[in-house]
Design goal:
414 residues, alpha+beta, globular
Length: 414
């Protein structure tokens, strides 16, 4: 993997962290380190030059953006979560999200296509042994491959306890049978993290009923389904996956038998800030496109930005973007400081997803009839935004988590 490279600043509309710090590392502050600024600028340059110009092309073709993925991998902009011990750059979550926001600014569909390793690799980081990490995380560094997080099923999304995929132990091997659905990168992945029920007792608690497995995609019996044609983020390879008498060796069991649910859910504390960062990137793009258009478009003898109704919409978008970014960074900071961040991760994911959707809708409104046309970028942004309210836990699930964490904290103080 190549080291991060210096690159020229690409102008844009955001304010945060645009100037070097003169105070040094003094704890709470709003400045990036020199290394973080270089990383952000490299990601921004790559996004503006490689991702954004081809976003519409991949939205139409719906093909997986392998060429972009390989370029990003070659620059060292992917798999930042992998520890140095296994060949990675060991970026903090904060730093990884700097890259992700920039990528999603260019196209959240391309971001989602090439960044699924963060989610698939998280359970391995949490529960994998040294050999598993060397083999499966190391492969992500050695070659530009994709991994997939294989949990959701046709009848079990947010209700993970309803999973029906089963794994039965036979000797020193496990045999997996079942169907997964809505699996991002299923058709292009080299390996999967798979969650399956290993306790046949339907009354068994989720904390003891499921086990995580690492499954190579070429294992006999693994069959990805057809590519799903989605509303937005269309170059992301979403499919079902069938597991029919798939034999997995004991060495590919992740962590303890029965503890898979904990690993699968623990991954979200690391990856919901990632989704939030991507939503912020999309919202920032909406704001920039709408602001530019409002300064060029004239009605009633003046630029539409001078109409209070439009100006207030832009102000609301800016408020949402800035607050969402700060909340995302707080969620990252908690993880990077080895603190439990479930509360902040859910808040970040919830607010950023809502802001992305409102910003996209407002951008279309500001563009008027042009916004409804495919010749302009905001209709795609609106289609792409919707999934942020759904994947990695719906907005409603996030609010349940937030309420649960809030009341638990409050009870501790009573």
């Amino acid at each position: 993997m190549k080291s991060f490279q210096r690159c020229f600043t690409v102008n844009h509309g955001r304010m945060l962290s645009s100037q070097p710090s003169s105070t040094g590392d003094i704890g709470f502050n709003f400045q990036l380190t020199e290394t973080q600024r270089e990383l952000q600028q490299l990601a921004r340059k790559f996004s503006r030059e490689e991702i954004l110009p081809r976003a519409a092309e991949y939205d139409i073709s719906m093909k997986f953006p392998w060429d972009i993925h390989k370029k990003a991998w070659d620059l060292g902009l992917l798999n930042g979560f992998v520890p140095e011990k296994y060949g990675g750059s060991a970026l903090s979550l904060f730093e990884d999200c700097l890259v992700i926001e920039e990528f999603a600014y260019g196209c959240s569909g391309i971001f989602n296509a090439i960044h699924t390793n963060d989610l698939a690799g998280a359970p391995v980081i949490i529960a994998g042994n040294d050999e598993q990490k060397k083999k499966y995380l190391g492969r992500l560094i050695e070659e530009p491959i994709i991994a997939a997080y294989c949990v959701t099923e046709p009848s079990a999304g947010s209700d993970v306890a309803g999973l029906k995929t089963k794994a039965v132990k036979k000797g020193d091997e496990w045999v997996i049978n079942g169907n997964k659905m809505w699996i991002t990168s299923a058709g292009v992945a080299s390996w999967y993290f798979v969650l399956a029920r290993t306790d046949p007792d339907p009354k068994a608690s989720t904390g003891k009923a499921f086990t995580g497995f690492i499954v190579d995609a070429k294992t006999p019996g693994v069959t990805p389904g057809r590519k799903e044609i989605n509303m937005g983020q269309r170059c992301s390879d979403t499919r079902g996956v069938t597991f029919e008498d798939v034999v997995v060796k004991q060495e590919n069991v992740l962590g303890e038998v029965g503890a898979g649910f904990k690993y699968a859910m623990g991954a979200f504390d690391k990856t919901r800030p990632v989704v939030a960062a991507a939503a912020v990137g999309l919202a920032q793009r909406c704001l920039d496109e709408a602001t530019r258009y409002s300064l060029e478009r004239k009605t009633f003898g003046t630029e539409i930005v001078n109409h209070q109704a439009v100006a207030h919409m832009l102000a609301d978008m800016a408020i949402g973007v800035e607050v969402s970014r700060l909340m995302t960074q707080r969620a990252c900071w908690e993880i990077d400081n080895k603190r439990k961040n479930t509360y902040y991760a859910s808040i970040a994911k919830c607010i950023a997803s809502e802001v992305a959707n409102k910003s996209a809708a407002d951008a279309v409104q500001i563009f008027g009839g042009n916004g409804f046309n495919t010749e302009y970028p905001v209709e795609k942004l609106m289609r792409d935004a919707k999934i942020f309210q759904i994947y990695e836990g719906t907005t409603q699930i996030q609010k349940l988590i937030i309420a649960r964490e809030l009341t638990a904290r409050f009870k501790q103080m009573m």
